[in-house]
Specification:
Length: about 500
C-alpha cells in the first residue's frame, strides 16, 4: 500500500521528477532489503553450532551465488566484527566468498577478517590468512593490514615477537625491497598505542639511521607519551622534536592540547591555541572537540558552551563528536537537563546518536535519576534498534542486575542475541551470577549454552558459578556444558581466564 501510494504521487509530478523519485524509492527498497539480508546472514552465522557442525554447507544453503558481491561480504564481515562473533566463523565466511569467480575481494574485507582473528589472539590463523592472500591477491596486503597485525601482536605478545613479526612481514611483502618510513611508522605506532614507550624509544634509536623519520614519525612518538598520561614527557619530547629540526603541524598541537586537557589543565591547553594561530595552524574540528572535552574535565561548562557557540565563527560545523564532548561536560557537572536538550538538538540537526552519546547519557542518568531514568533512555535506544558497544552493554547489564531488574537484564540479553550480537564475557558473567542468585538457574544455563553454541568461551568465573548451582541435582546439564567446553577447546584453545571444564569428578 505504501508503495502504491508513492506511485500515485508520481503521476502528479513532471516526468523528470517522476524518474528521480522512482529511482530514490527503488534504492530505498533495495537498500532496506539488502540490509535485512545482511543482518539475517550475520545472525545465522553467529547462531550456527560451532564446531559441532561444519559451516560451509550452511553458507552454501543460505547464500545464493548471485548475492556474493564486494559490498555484501564487507557488510557481513563488518556486522560479525561489531557483534563479537567467533573469529573462525568470519574466517570461514571470507574463505567461502573466495570460491565465487565473480567475487573480487577488497582490502576492506580482508582487513576486517584479519582484525577479527587477531582480536581473538588466533595469530596462527591470521598468518595463514596472510599467506593465502599473498599468493592469490597480494595487492590486498596494505599498510592498514600490517598495522592491524603488528598492533595486536604488540598488545598480546612480547617485544621480541613483535620485531620478529615486522621482519617476517618485510621478508614476505616487500618483494626483496627494504621497508620504508611508512612501515617503520607502523611499528612505532604498534608500541605507542599500547603505551610501551620504553620499547618504542628502543626501536626508534635502533632503527633511526636506517629510516628517515618525518614529522609524522615524531607525532606518533609524541602521541605515545600523551597516551601514557605524562605531560612532562610530552613537552620534553616536543622540544626534542624541535631541536631535531622537525616543524610542528596541526597534529602536533592537537596532541599537546589533548595532553593538557586530559590532565585537567584546560587553560594551558587553551593557551596553545594562540601559539597554533601564530604558527599559521588554524584550529580544526578536532581541536575544538578536544578543548570542549577538556573544559568538561575541568568542570568549566561555561567555557565549554562558549567554545561550542564560537564554532560557526570559525567556519566549523559541529558533528556528533562535538555534541558528545559538550554533553560529557554537562554530565560531569551533574547538569542532566542540558545534556538531554543536546540529544534533542542533535536530532533536530539530523545527527545520529552514536554509542558515545548513549554511554555518556547512561552514565549521567545513573548518577542523577537512577534506574528509572536509565530505563526510559534504554527503551528509547531499543525502539530504534540500536545495538550498543561492549562497554555500554556491560554497564547496563551491571546496573540492571545490581538493582534486581533481572527481567530487564534478560530482555536485554534476548534483544542482543536476536540482533546476532554475542555479548562480552563480562556481561555474561554478571547476568549468570544474578540469575543464579535469584534461583533462575535454568535461564543461566540456557544463556551459557547460547554462548558456547556460538563458538565463544565461557569464563572461569561464569562456569564456577554454574558448576556450584548445577552439581546438586542437575548433573546432566553440567556434563553437557563440560562436553561443549572440551569440544570448543579442540578448535579454539582457551586463553587465560577461560573455563577448562569440570573441576571435580561428579
Amino acid at each position: 500500500m505504501l508503495f502504491l501510494g508513492r506511485c500515485n504521487q508520481l503521476l502528479q509530478v513532471p516526468l523528470l521528477q517522476q524518474l528521480t523519485i522512482a529511482a530514490t524509492i527503488g534504492f530505498r527498497f533495495y537498500s532496506s532489503d539488502l540490509e535485512f539480508e545482511i543482518k539475517k546472514i550475520t545472525k545465522i552465522i553467529n547462531d550456527h553450532p560451532f564446531p559441532d557442525q561444519p559451516i560451509h554447507p550452511k553458507l552454501a544453503q543460505i547464500i545464493p551465488s548471485t548475492t556474493i558481491s564486494t559490498s555484501f561480504v564487507e557488510n557481513v564481515l563488518g556486522h560479525l566484527f561489531a557483534s563479537h562473533s567467533n573469529g573462525l566463523k568470519a574466517f570461514e565466511f571470507f574463505k567461502f566468498s573466495l570460491q565465487f569467480s565473480q567475487f573480487c575481494p577488497s582490502s576492506d574485507a580482508f582487513e576486517k577478517t584479519l582484525h577479527i582473528l587477531t582480536r581473538m589472539r588466533n595469530f596462527n590463523k591470521a598468518w595463514e590468512l596472510i599467506e593465502e592472500i599473498h599468493k592469490t591477491h597480494p595487492s590486498l596486503l596494505t599498510l592498514k593490514s600490517m598495522s592491524i597485525m603488528l598492533s595486536r601482536i604488540a598488545k598480546f605478545q612480547s617485544f621480541e615477537e613483535t620485531l620478529e613479526a615486522f621482519q617476517k612481514l618485510e621478508d614476505k611483502l616487500s618483494d626483496h625491497k627494504q621497508f620504508g618510513i611508512d612501515e617503520f611508522n607502523l611499528l612505532l605506532r604498534a608500541f605507542c598505542t599500547q603505551r610501551q614507550m620504553k620499547e618504542a624509544k628502543s626501536v626508534f634509536n635502533k632503527l633511526y639511521s636506517r629510516f628517515s623519520p618525518t614529522t609524522k614519525t615524531m607525532n606518533i612518538l609524541l602521541l605515545g607519551f600523551k597516551e601514557s598520561g605524562d605531560v612532562t614527557s610530552v613537552e620534553l619530547f616536543y622540544h626534542e622534536m624541535i631541536r631535531r629540526g622537525f616543524k610542528p603541524n596541526i597534529v602536533t598541537y592537537n596532541i599537546r592540547i589533548d595532553s593538557y586537557c586530559k590532565r585537567g589543565r584546560f587553560l594551558d591547553g587553551l593557551k596553545l591555541v594562540e601559539e597554533m594561530e601564530q604558527a599559521n595552524c588554524l584550529p580544526t574540528l578536532k581541536t575544538l572537540t578536544t578543548l570542549i572535552h577538556g573544559a568538561g574535565i575541568a568542570h568549566n561548562t561555561t567555557y565549554a558552551q562558549q567554545l561550542f557557540d564560537e564554532m560557526p565563527k570559525r567556519n566549523l560545523l559541529p558533528d556528533s563528536g562535538v555534541y558528545n564532548a559538550l554533553m560529557n561536560a554537562f554530565i560531569r557537572s551533574r547538569d542532566i537537563n542540558s545534556a538531554t536538550k543536546l540529544m534533542d538538538e542533535m536530532e533536530a540537526n539530523n545527527l545520529l546518536h552514536d554509542n558515545i552519546t548513549f554511554h555518556t547519557m547512561f552514565s549521567g542518568l545513573m548518577k542523577s535519576t537512577g534506574i528509572d531514568g536509565v530505563l526510559e533512555l534504554y527503551h528509547k535506544m531499543i525502539s530504534r534498534n540500536f545495538v550498543p558497544k561492549s562497554e555500554t552493554v556491560v554497564m547496563l547489564m551491571k546496573l540492571f542486575c545490581k538493582n534486581h531488574e533481572v527481567d530487564d537484564a534478560m530482555g536485554f540479553w534476548r534483544y542482543l542475541i536476536d540482533k546476532g550480537y554475542c555479548p562480552h564475557s563480562h556481561a555474561v558473567d554478571v547476568l549468570v551470577r544474578s540469575l543464579c542468585s535469584h534461583g533462575r538457574v535454568e535461564e543461566a544455563f540456557e544463556c551459557s549454552l547460547q554462548i558456547l553454541e556460538r563458538g565463544r568461551h565461557l569464563s572461569k568465573t561464569c562456569f564456577r558459578v554454574l558448576e556450584r548451582h548445577l552439581e546438586m541435582g542437575n548433573e546432566d546439564k553440567l556434563k553437557k556444558l563440560n562436553k561443549m567446553i572440551k569440544n570448543l577447546h579442540t578448535v579454539i584453545p582457551p586463553s587465560k581466564g577461560h573455563a577448562n571444564g569440570i573441576s571435580s569428578v561428579i
